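agent> step 3/5: call structure_predict on target 'Carbohydrate ABC transporter permease' (Alicyclobacillus fastidiosus).
agent> reason: downstream docking stage needs a structural representation; sequence fetched in step 2, passing through unchanged.
tool.input:
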Amino acid sequence: MKIKISDICINVVVWIGGILVVIPFVWMIVSSFKTQGQIFQSPFTLLSRLNFHNYSSLFTQWPYLEWYRNSLLVAVVLTGLTVFFSSLAGYGFSKYQFKGKSWMFAIVIMSLSIPFQSILIPLYSEMAEMHIANSYVSLIIPFIAPPVGIFLMRQFIYSVPDELLDAGRIDGCSEFILYLRIVLPLLKPAMGALAIITFVSTWGNFLWPLVMLNDSSKFTLPLGLYSLLSDASNGGNAQYGQMLAGAALASVPPVVLFMFMQRAFVNGMTMGGVKDN
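tool.output (status=ok):
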């Protein structure tokens, strides 16, 4: 069995890339158990013993559990709504014919090229006019039907045979029941991929919560961890150990979610590339 040089090069590049990604994560985990002075010690040293002071002070001096709860609430609700509305829109674009369909989908695709920063102020003004600023609703409503989710679902639903839908109509199913009982069960890989993408992007979102929220009791994790640093600018000391401990705990939900849904994510990203009818 011959080993190709190209395969060796690809494996080397993948391993190097993986190591470069893992090194900062390992540094964060190890440093979260160190004292403030040990964190910046040079050269970098591994732990001689575990020090849980950063973790205990994080929970006693800051409302970390409250930030965690807020982030989970927003991320879980937004992920569920995004999967539902994106699959519903993708089902309409892929299986129905209506006037202006091509133009509407073209607008959806073109919106992918618009930077979020360019619509930040108009979107904030809209939330303020609706009197939902400084609320969890304002963090959820603008993102429940993202263009990338609609595109992913549309491409995947093309693979659902029309004969299944026709058989359901013959049996007397309504259009929504067709979507709920026939289409959705076949979309598990695509829904898994979209769920991971949405959850991770929402979990780490900093800019939009920073603009929308001014009540510290509603802070999400990124804002809460930032407040540890901003406290130093007001005369306090920057608690880097607590920040690293908070970041280490914040990385748990996305990692666990990806571990349980890795297969669905890979299948969803590779099976949706079908040709348009």
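agent> step 4/5: record observation. Residues 57-270 form a domain with the MetI-like fold fold (CATH 1.10.3720.10).
agent> proceeding.
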